[in-house]
Automatic annotation (TrEMBL), chain A:
Gene3D superfamilies associated with the record: MetI-like
Protein name: ABC transporter permease
Residues passing through the membrane, by range: 30-51, 83-113, 125-146, 185-204, 225-246, 285-306
GO biological process: transmembrane transport
GO CC annotation terms, alphabetical: plasma membrane
PANTHER family: BLR7065 PROTEIN (PTHR43005), SPERMIDINE_PUTRESCINE TRANSPORT SYSTEM PERMEASE PROTEIN (PTHR43005:SF1)
From TrEMBL, chain B:
Family: Belongs to the bacterial solute-binding protein 1 family.
Keywords: Periplasm, Signal, Transport
Record's protein name: ABC transporter substrate-binding protein
GO CC annotations, alphabetized: periplasmic space
Pfam families: SBP_bac_8
InterPro entries the UniProt entry points to: Bact_solute-bd_prot1, SBP, TAT_signal
Compartments where located: Periplasm
Alphabetized SUPFAM superfamilies for the sequence: Periplasmic binding protein-like II
PROSITE patterns per the UniProt record, alphabetical: TAT (PS51318)
Keyword Hydrolase: no
From TrEMBL, chain C:
Domain ABC transmembrane type-1 as annotated: residue spans: 92-284
Keywords: Cell membrane, Membrane, Transmembrane, Transmembrane helix, Transport
Compartments (UniProt record): Cell membrane
Annotated Pfam families: BPD_transp_1 (PF00528)
Topological relation to the membrane, as annotated: Multi-pass membrane protein
UniProt cross-references to InterPro entries, sorted A to Z: BP-dep_ABC_trans_perm, MetI-like, MetI-like_sf
Family, as annotated: Belongs to the binding-protein-dependent transport system permease family.
Protein name, UniProt field: Sugar ABC transporter permease
Phylogenetic lineage: Bacteria, Pseudomonadati, Pseudomonadota, Alphaproteobacteria, Hyphomicrobiales
Primary subcellular site in the record, as a coarse category: membrane
PROSITE patterns assigned to the protein according to its UniProt record, in alphabetical order: ABC_TM1
Length: 314, 436, 298
């Protein structure tokens, strides 16, 4: 309906002067109509559930029946719950290692791709594949690669004479953590690399030429030209990366389901296990809500990083 | 999943089943005449079941469903879900009042929402009287607070699968019957490089069954009959030490094992002793005849109490109160457990399913192959999911959270010491039983 | 817009001005070798997936007789089984329909929102822009539990519509953000002329802005499709019946026969589920990179 109203020539509007015409011509109302679809979806299915999640975490709701308000009881129980703290620790370690590695490798790969290369388009498409393929499906491939009996890695090392037994990839806590982190890095590098590559391409070549003529080394070029110009996009892309690693679910769920002995349980997977599988919605919601402070912290840092440049809002 | 596998199995094993299919229909028609629960006019049923492990079991079940439809005119749509997904889906259906009419699921799931389950006392009485009475464990799963809210349709036995040659080489002619002998066997097998291995990961079937046996056979329990938490006991410590000693003889990787891992390793010839249902043997008979010939099954060793304390899977079926065809549901439950249906179904399951009613102990499947025998005892040797405690939603949550499995796993893998691992489990139990 | 695309293609060659001075052996060690190693690692899981999908079962678990890196007498059994004896085509169809519907809905909402924020500039537009950016940072794993209860309350449980309505919460923020960048590059003068000529905002949007922003729409669309295709936790929680599932959820749960994993079918399912997106991307990768370039440019 709004569309039809808007489709009429705006010039005709001031002459009628009714409330309706103000609705469709005034800048504020026009903005309102244009924002309506996006706002409705985001409010109904994002903001409302976010608030409802906080509310659920204060109740003892279970699947199958409504609950009553229990105050912060769920949080009290979580506070001295070993498994919960283990999952927090796991999440932080997972996010920390994976993000640093993804950034390092991603930036390195972006710099490599920015050089003079044959088959550039082809190579770029190949690099993007891990990002394009649904995570669960590639996680299944990793699961098979890291199988305790039939791992191709174990097989190769044994046949090269470097090992005399199979590596217990997903059964040993440390190995399991390394494996899932590796899979996450593998999945995340392409997006970071391609986005940073896009950033690199906005840097004017003349800057490098001028600097090189002035005797700058490649490292100085990188440190004083590339990096400062890339900072805003690095801030954005790393915020995304940290956030989505922190709240990762599917990789872990497909590969280990939190095992062995909960050493790869992330907060998200624990929340699913307690909330959906055990049916304790209130407690699951409490674990999910406990992620929020960490996320706000991450967003705060990114906001700080973007201060220098008014990002997409000017 | 695929008609392909089913056909393969059918060609081999179930010629018998096919022959009886015609007879089944005749019986079904006669049965429908006498049936006391007359299906509602125009009724149709939706049934959600766990995803089959033995293809021929599924085949037989579908034949039974077809016969029911032909005799009563009630169409039944069957969908299946993996073990882990049944319980949440059943809960959601109970919550929203929409979804399947009946769910055939695992363990104590009806106890999660007893008020949403249709009372089926009349069906239980009818079947109990006709077929020699319900086994105690079956009754424990079917009844909540004295009311029948589900029909325990079957159990599944998980027992020790071992390679005969490897056991003999380890110096045993007969499978050991006590804790010490069993440990000795595993140690000797490790020495011979023919190791044992039991799942210590989040394996709904395999890990729960052997870990609960280990706990209970040492007279240790998570909670007592009044739901008081009693896990922090010297008996638990003994059970942990025992399992740790066993774990040291296992193949590497058991902490990450799910329900499929040991099947795969056993069939590949990398694993020589494990705990599993009859599905390994069933697969071996089809794909690895040499392994099938060299393997056998053993009972779980009995602890000091002298009584079997096993933990076997139970498969109860429930109907929701919201169903529009309560009589059709009851008719289906009664029909499925009638001897003419149930016996051939048991046979087709090749020993995977075990009967909840006394009368079926004489089914030929248990004697047709001596290697099947132990699986026929599953339903009479098992305790219900709570151990000493009655079946309840809390017991279901303990299983879903793998509280007991994680306690053992975290001690065995050295992540926590003895005291801490017990205390962690105690803490989890307190969390789950807090409003008891 | 066309200008952006061409810049993206030509600039990198000169970006390291003195690169041509490097000798070939030096380039091999510093560029080609590392790049080769990274590409091999990135591609190996797909090789492994494809290999497993065409390997007969007995070769899968017999690593002593057969070299696991290769396959003797490959079979199409797993793939044929997948396509003709399971619900796989149905799951693909579901995934496609849900993704396309959610993408179209999101693009519609995002175009309007981005245009309003950038060009109508109503009071508070900047704040709303920031709020939408923040919405992108709220991950599904925080929302799935409360959303599950909401979905059930609306009677949308186990319905594809639940996903069509929920997925846009992931898609709209990014698409809006990307389109805002695009709209900003379109000169004001065009719009002013049109306004003076008496065109409405709607007409300007449809007739002037959208045609110019087609590359941006394509990138946002592709990105949205990928996210939908990839989504797991909502689909896992909100869908129940076998016939309603999406590919990622179905592959994980439907190819497990009790305690027997059908690795061949699993990997075939993973491979076939990935192909549509890989093909889509191979056509549009340049678009995608240039769109990102456009978006990150001030």
């Amino acid at each position: 309906m709004a569309d039809i109203a808007l489709a009429r020539p705006a010039a005709a509007a001031p002459t009628t002067g009714s409330a309706w015409s103000r609705l469709r011509t005034s800048r504020g109302w026009l903005g309102f109509w244009f924002m309506l679809p996006a706002a409705a979806i985001l409010l109904l299915f994002l903001a409302y559930p976010l608030a409802k999640g906080v509310w659920l975490s204060l109740t003892d709701t279970r699947i199958g029946r409504g609950g009553s308000f229990v105050g912060i009881e769920n949080y009290e129980w979580l506070w001295d719950d070993n498994v919960f703290w283990l999952s927090v620790f796991n999440t932080l370690v997972y996010t920390g290692f994976a993000s640093v590695a993804k950034f390092g490798i991603g930036l390195y790969l972006a710099l490599l791709l920015n050089k003079r290369l044959p088959f550039k388009a082809l190579i770029r498409s190949i690099v993007l594949i891990p990002f394009v393929v649904p995570t669960v499906l590639s996680a299944l491939a990793f699961w098979w690669i890291f199988d305790s009996q039939f791992s191709i890695i174990s097989w190769s090392l044994r046949h090269l004479g470097l090992l005399d037994h199979n590596i217990d990839f997903l059964g040993d806590p440390t190995m399991a953590r390394i494996c899932v982190t590796f899979a996450n890095i593998w999945r995340g590098v392409p997006f970071i690399a391609i986005t940073l590559l896009a950033g690199l391409q906005t840097v004017s070549p003349s800057l490098y030429e001028a600097a090189t003529i002035d005797g700058a080394t490649p490292w100085q070029n990188f440190r004083h030209i590339t990096l400062p110009l890339l900072t805003p996009i690095i801030a954005v892309v790393m915020t995304f990366s940290v956030l989505f690693t922190f709240t990762d679910f599917q990789l872990i769920w497909a590969m280990t389901r939190g095992g062995p002995v909960n050493t790869t349980h992330l907060m998200a997977t624990l929340s699913y296990q307690r909330g959906i599988l055990s049916g304790n919605l209130g407690e699951g919601a409490a674990i999910a809500t406990a992620m929020v402070p960490f996320l706000i912290f991450a967003i705060g840092i990114s906001w700080f990083g973007l201060q220098n440049r008014k990002w997409q809002t000017g | 999943m695929s008609a392909f596998d089913r056909r393969q199995i059918l060609k081999g094993g179930a010629a018998l089943g096919l022959a009886s299919a015609a007879g089944l229909e005749g019986f079904a028609r006669a049965w429908a005449q006498e049936n006391q629960w007359k299906p509602e006019a125009g009724a149709s049923l939706k049934l959600l079941r766990w995803k089959r492990f033995i293809p021929s079991e599924d085949e037989a079940f579908m034949r039974l469903v077809d016969a029911f439809t032909k005799a009563t005119g009630v169409p039944v749509t069957v969908t299946s879900e993996s073990f882990d997904d049944i319980q949440p889906k059943a809960s959601v259906a109970a919550n929203t009042g929409q979804g399947p009419d009946m769910v055939w699921g695992l363990y104590s799931f009806p106890a999660l929402f007893p008020s949403k389950c249709m009372e089926v006392g009349d069906v239980a009485d009818y079947l109990g009287k006709k077929y020699g009475g319900w086994l105690p464990a079956a009754e424990a799963y079917g009844k909540v607070k004295g009311k029948w809210i589900a029909i325990p349709m079957a159990f599944n036995g998980g027992y020790i699968n071992y390679r005969i040659s490897a056991m003999n080489k380890a110096g045993f002619q007969k499978f050991p019957e006590d804790h010490a002998g069993f440990l000795e066997l595993c140690r000797a097998m490790k020495k011979n490089n023919t190791p044992a291995g039991f799942a210590l990961g989040h394996a709904t079937g395999d890990a729960n069954s052997w870990i609960h046996w280990a706990l209970w056979s040492h007279d240790a329990y998570l909670v007592d009959a009044n739901e008081k938490i009693i896990i922090n006991s010297p008996e638990t410590a003994k059970a942990l030490e025992y399992v740790k000693a066993l774990y040291d003889t296992f193949v590497p990787g058991t902490a990450s094992w799910n329900d499929s891992s040991n099947n795969k390793a056993f069939l590949a010839g990398d694993l020589y002793l494990t705990g599993n249902g009859i599905s390994v043997y069933a697969a071996a008979k089809n794909e690895k005849k040499d392994i099938a010939a060299d393997m056998d099954h053993g009972l779980w060793p009995v602890g000091k109490s002298g009584k079997p304390t096993e933990f076997q899977l139970a498969f109860p079926i429930l109907a929701y109160t919201y169903t529009k065809a309560p009589n059709a549901c009851k008719a289906f439950m009664a029909f499925a457990l009638e001897a003419q249906n149930y016996n051939s179904w048991l046979e087709a399951s090749q020993g995977y399913l075990c009967h909840p009613l006394q009368a079926y102990a004489n089914n030929p499947i248990w004697t047709a192959d001596p290697k099947n025998k132990v699986f026929g005892e599953a339903s009479s040797r098992t305790l219900a999911a709570g151990g000493l405690a009655p079946v309840s939603e809390k017991v279901a949550a303990v299983l879903a959270d793998f509280v007991v499995v994680d306690m053992f796993a975290s001690y065995c893998t050295g992540r926590e010491d003895l005291k801490t691992s017990i205390r962690t489990a105690e803490r989890q139990a307190q969390r789950i039983f807090r409003s008891a | 817009m066309a200008a952006t695309t061409t810049t993206a293609d030509t600039t990198p060659d000169n970006s390291e001005g003195m690169a041509y001075l490097d000798t070939l052996p030096r380039r091999v060690v510093t560029v080609y070798l590392p790049l080769f190693v990274i590409l091999v690692v990135l591609l190996f899981p797909f090789y492994w997936m494809a290999l497993t999908a065409i390997k007969p079962d007995e070769q899968l678990i017999d690593m002593e007789t057969y070299n696991p890196f290769w396959v003797v007498s490959p079979t199409l059994k797993h793939i044929a089984k997948l396509l003709f004896q399971t619900n796989y085509p149905l799951w693909l169809w579901n995934t496609m329909m849900i993704s396309v519907a959610a993408t179209v809905l999101s693009l519609f909402a995002s175009v309007l929102a981005a245009y309003a924020i950038v060009r109508i500039r109503y009071r508070g537009a900047v704040a709303v822009g920031a709020a939408i950016f923040l919405a992108y940072l709220v991950p599904p794993s925080i929302l799935f539990i409360p959303l599950a209860t909401i979905i059930q309350a609306y009677g949308l449980y186990d319905s594809p519509f639940a996903l069509v309505l929920v997925y846009p919460t992931i898609l709209i923020p990014f698409s809006t953000w990307l389109l805002m960048g695009y709209f900003k590059t379109i000169p004001y003068e065009l719009e002013e002329c049109a306004l003076i000529d008496g065109a409405s905002r709607w007409q300007i949007l449809v007739k002037i802005i959208l045609p110019l922003a087609v590359p941006g729409l394509i990138s946002a669309g592709i990105f949205s499709l990928t996210l939908c295709w990839n989504e797991f936790i909502y689909a896992l929680t909100f869908l129940s019946s076998t016939q309603n599932k999406t590919v990622p959820v179905a592959v994980v749960s439907e190819f497990v026969d009790g305690d027997i994993y059908r690795w061949g079918s699993l990997m075939a399912g993973a491979l076939v589920g990935s192909l549509p997106l890989v093909i889509l991307y191979s056509f549009f990768v340049e678009h995608y990179v240039s769109a990102m370039t456009g978006a990150v440019k001030e």
